[in-house]
Write a structure and sequence with these properties.
The chain has five helices and four strands, in the order ααββαβααβ. By secondary structure, the chain is mainly α. A two-stranded antiparallel ribbon has the order 1-2. A two-stranded antiparallel sheet has the order 3-4.
């Protein structure tokens, strides 16, 4: 009888933790999914423009890896929400962790979009976040790629 009660208590605890995780992180989860699929879409479009062959297995594997990686980062942020960084009711460490990962993904999607559209710049969020550079300096010029015939 004790074994069954312990099992039920453990199950109830884990259920409540998972429920709290989902409820408190639901907007971040939705934003992660949107970013992943935007990057996937723009990545496919940029690869087609470069003339690369799109391999479905690689595309699915990389997308699943991103989903799992972001799930791990969301869990890290969730566990850090009551850490030392809580100031004025905002979990600074948690938000910083998520923003760092999401800005990298946003940069990737933006750069894939720029490559697809043929824009001659890429966004460097590290320069932008350092606070020493403004948006103009965070946009890096990219030299146009030459094709096999030596033409643009």
């Amino acid at each position: 009888m004790e074994h069954q009660s312990l099992h039920e208590a453990t199950q109830a605890l884990l259920s409540s933790l998972f429920s709290d995780f989902y409820i408190s992180m639901q907007w971040w989860i939705g934003f992660a999914i949107a970013l992943i699929f935007a990057d996937l879409r723009f990545g496919i479009m940029a690869a087609k423009k470069r003339g690369e062959k799109i391999r479905g297995s690689r595309m699915r594997r990389r997308t699943m890896n991103k989903i799992l990686d972001y799930g791990c980062w969301l869990f890290v942020a969730y566990t850090c929400r009551h850490s030392v960084g809580v100031v004025f009711g905002v979990p600074v460490v948690s938000v910083a962790c998520i923003l760092y990962v999401y800005l990298n993904e946003l940069s990737s999607a933006g750069n894939n979009y720029a490559e697809y559209k043929g824009l001659p710049w890429r966004i460097n969020f590290r320069k932008l976040l350092s606070g020493r550079h403004d948006l103009e300096k965070a946009l890096e010029e990219v030299e146009p790629k030459k094709d096999n015939n030596g033409e643009d």
